[in-house]
Design brief:
Elements (H helix, E strand, L loop, with lengths): L30 E2 L4 E2 L12 H4 L6 H4 L6 E2 L3 H6 L2 E8 L9 E9 L10 E6 L10 H8 L2 H4 L2 E6 L27 H22 L8 H14 L5 E6 L1 H12 L4 E7 L9 H22 L3 H4 L5 H15 L4 E3 L2 E3 L4 H8 L6 H15 L8 H11 L8 H15 L6 H12 L6 H4 L25 E6 L7 H10 L3 E6 L6 H4 L3 H13 L2 E2 L3 E3 L11
Parallel strand pairs: 6-7, 6-8, 8-9, 9-12, 12-13, 13-15
Antiparallel strand pairs: 1-15, 2-14, 3-4, 4-5, 5-7, 10-11
Helix pairs in contact: 7-8, 9-11, 9-13
Family: Belongs to the peptidase S33 family.
Pfam families: Abhydrolase_1, Abhydrolase_4
GO molecular function: hydrolase activity
Length: about 550
Amino acid sequence: MKTTTGPLSAIGLTLALAAGAAGCAAQDSSSAGAEKPASARETTVTQETTVTREAATKGLDRFYRQRLDWGPCKDPALAESGTRCAKVIVPLDYAAPKGPTLSLTISRLKATGAKSERRGIIQTNPGGPGGHGLGMPVQLRAKMTPEVAAAYDVIGMDTRGLGESSPLDCGLDSISWFRGAGFDRASFDRVAKKSADDARKCEAKYGDRLAHYSTRNIARDVDVVRGALGERRTSWFGQSYGTYLGAVYAQMFPGRLDRIVLDSAMNPRDYGLKMFQAMGPANEKALDDVARWAAPRDATYRLGKTPAAVRATVEGLVRRSAQRPIEIGGDRLDQETLPFVLYFLGTDDVDNAEYARTVRLFLDAEAGKAVEPSERLAGLLGAMFRTGPDQTGTGRDYANTLAILCADTTAPGDAEWYRKAIEKARAKQPVFGPFHNAPMPCGWWKQKPSEPPTKIDNDRPVLQIQATGDTRTTYEQGLGMHKAMRGSKLVTVPVRTHAVYTGCANACADKAVNDYLLTGELPREDYTCARDEGKGKEGR
């Protein structure tokens, strides 16, 4: 995603470099089929207890009533922006509030308006799981209209086990899971062993503590933050994984929510392995889109004169890398790691030119020419290959990603299950099938989820923004959330992008979010934004 304070916002879903993530092209502020808004209505909740019962667990009062001491954030850029940070103490295990605790770091940009203009707080999550959240208020504030900025204190948080919030560190020295399983048995076995080894490393260091890094506990943390801030209610802005976290919070604490925006949502029923498998076809489609874009520009990129020829060029590059890895920037890309780079580059359709340039760069490197990676590619390679404590810290972020996913969900622990899934997918997903069906470390996680997953089923008023070409949380995934959050209204953006509001210059979607946050009124009907073909043409 495009909101991150590190090289990668999260290994699983967001995968965007802080230094160079581009957003989708600007859109016309008009909308096709838009209806006038209707006032938000009273809602009912069908599953979870109310917040008063949730918060009444013996011993939690001291967490809800703690005093927060605000000071400059550690990150100099955040401190310079006026963002202030504070520590919040939460129990490791909410069922044992007298037991061990965790120290979480939150950030705040105060509302810009007078007290009479202030509505309250809006809490945020940038995605992941494993996305650094302290910088999210700055990015959200940048897209708010002055009237909305005047109304809300914007709150960010590094979730438990991440960044400045009692971070986990399993000693992982590489990103094992997000690797293609290649073309032969040796490559598959190597990837499967890495996944199992990562699970063992985390288990050996943290044992049964790992069961407490679940989304349900993070939702409880969110509510403690609300209480510690002295707010009766909170609004929510979440993108990618943050949509799932927001939906879980809405289900667990329905009485504490004001306005909810879910940007680039996932299907809560598919959260986990199914969600990652759904990315395979979406990324193959993105490659086809790039091929159609690059074919008439063969004189520039020399990838092929037809879409089929461009695709064949990319597929051939991946196949040959299995025998002869591509050396670039001091790193070696092979059948296991090259799909990761292509996966990242396919996120946004304004990046088509960069995708084509990078493939050309790889072809030149393969031919023995001296090449230098772009700044963005160099950052991605650094995040992939240099994950030690003195490098990017991605190894620690990856540990947090695994801790949350594996505390929430289970996965097959039989390597053969994944091998069969890969072979089944390979025919239609030759580049990304071995990548998105690779063995998941949760399959070898000894600590199983301590609570069942939260069933999302309510009619809370929600504004949902979804891009049709999203390769991370696909449009079909978003429709699953739309169905589960029955009171939601869906604004569709006809582009390939992820994290629309913070990462995409889309005036139609921006207006939808800002209008809703300001008035609390949802559109009467779902609608699709008009696409402005006159802007952002380089990558389209």
